[in-house]
Amino acid sequence: MSTESASDADLTLAQWSARYLEHLQARKMAENSLRAYRRDLESVAAELAEVTGRRRDELSLSEVTSHSLRSAFARYAATRSASSVTRAWSSWNGFFRFLVVEGASSGNPMPVVPKPRTADTTPKPLEGEQTPERLLRSAAQGARKARDPWPERDLAVLATLLCTGLRSSELLDLTVSCLAGRHGERRLHVRGKGGANRSVPIDESLEGILEDYLDSRRRRFGRRLPGTEPLFVNHRGEALRRGGLQYLVQQSLKAAGVSDRVRRGAMVHALRHTFATRLAEDGANAAEIAKLLGHASISSSQSYIDVTAREQRLSVRANRTNRVLGELTSRRQDE
């Protein structure tokens, strides 16, 4: 056995976890995603330590068995939502695939670890034909009550989500330099899920909204904006975080009077779904939608087209003329 192999065999679970996170970082994974992976690995490792009676930093890979993993995930799931458990399961599944490739594990035990049933993946756009426009007009008018109002920033965030379909993590990872290109041909360079980069074209109207926001930001804080600065910031000039984004969208929906038009479990993601659904309604195919949204599989994008077709059929059925035809048909059958 080589010296390198011998030293690898002596690595603890925590040390292998650190190597895996370095591997993900080398793939240019978004910082928010890295934090989520680290949190999932550490949280379940803490439960493993309780199950095995060992200190977390002393746990070896040989002590991580199918039995101990099932027990650890059962403890972890007791106080977490189904979506959190599913995400942690996926994190550990990826971790063990990495260990198998590295030769540190002879197999992946995760398939025998139970996980919650897959959640409904049906797109959940904002309900109501004019809801997105109502939301944007409300933001532009400064309808959201805030201690330090900043309508230009609120409008820019909402417009970017609705007109590009970015994920929350992608929006929060944007820097000033991500807004690139000549006037009228601007694009947003996005670091997507799994480190997959893409370039999303933006319309001149959104370009104008973003420029107005950046001008207001320079006036507000009295300083230049280097390209490395986060594109979207809070009222203190610090990078906007996930909680702040959730609150901004939630309060903006409330101020616009459309909180009841967000389906359960959607919120910020509803704006992404709205963008994709409107693309499908306007005739975009699955490949085009996949490219703009950063989907790894076209099947994910196809769901927007399928839902749009179903909604169109429901609309046709709701037509009053069709209801009359239905009555006439029933009457004829009775005769």
What is the level-2 CATH architecture name of the largest domain? Orthogonal Bundle
Instruction: Work out the number of β strands.
Output: 3
> Share of helix among residues?
55-70%
CATH topology label of the largest domain? hpI Integrase, Chain A
Alpha-beta content class: mainly alpha
Shape: globular
Which homologous superfamily in CATH is the superfamily of the largest domain?
A: Intergrase catalytic core
* Amino-to-carboxy terminus distance: 89 Å
Order of helices and strands: HHHHHHHHEEEHHHHHH
CATH class of the largest domain: Mainly Alpha
Low-confidence stretches: 1-6, 312-319
Tally of helical segments: 14
Strand order of the largest sheet: 1-2-3
Question: Which features would summarize this protein structure in a list?
Answer:
335 residues, mainly alpha, DNA polymerase, domain 1, hpI Integrase, Chain A, 2 domains, three-stranded antiparallel beta sheet, 14 helices, 3 strands, 59% helix, 4% strand, globular, disordered N terminus
